[in-house]
Amino acid sequence: MRVLVVQDDPNVQSLWSGILEESGHEVVLVETESAALKTLQTSAYDLVLLDLCLNGRDALAVTTFATYRNPSCKVVVVSGSAVFSQKKLFAMSPAVAAALRKPVDIEDLVAVCDRVHRNERSPAVPVMASSDIEFRP
C-alpha cells in the first residue's frame, strides 16, 4: 500500500513511517498542507495518514484533495483537537474513512490503516483507554 504521511512533528513522523514501512507499506513523508497538496497532485496514494492540525492550522483541505487523482484513496485523520468531532470530520469529506484521537496507540494506528485500506468499515480494533477510534459507518 502507498501511504502519504502528513505530519509536522518529526518524532511522530519518524515513528509512523517506521512502523508502516515495517508492515510492508511504501511511505512518503510531508510536513505541511501545501506539500501534501503538491504531492497528491503528482502521485496517487492508497491512503493518507493526516495529522489534522499542522503548524497550528487545520489541514482539512488535504482530505478532499486526496481523492482528486485517486478516487479510491482513503484518509485516516489523527487529531488531538476537540474542535471537530469525528462525525463532523466524516460529514466534511467523503474521503475520511477513520478518525483517531491523540495520543494514538501505534498498534491501533497500523491496524486502522490496514483495515481502512481493505475497506472494512466496522470497528474491529478495540477502543483503548489511550485512544478513541471511529470508522465511517
TrEMBL record:
PROSITE patterns to which the protein is assigned, alphabetical: RESPONSE_REGULATORY
Record flagged with keyword NADP: no
GO biological process entries: phosphorelay signal transduction system
Keywords: Phosphoprotein
InterPro entries for the chain: Bact_response_regulator, CheY-like_superfamily, Sig_transdc_resp-reg_receiver
Pfam families: Response_reg
Domain Response regulatory: 2-117
Isomerase recorded as keyword: no
Gene3D superfamilies: 3.40.50.2300
Post-translational modification 4-aspartylphosphate, affected residues: 51
Protein name: Two-component system, NtrC family, nitrogen regulation response regulator NtrX
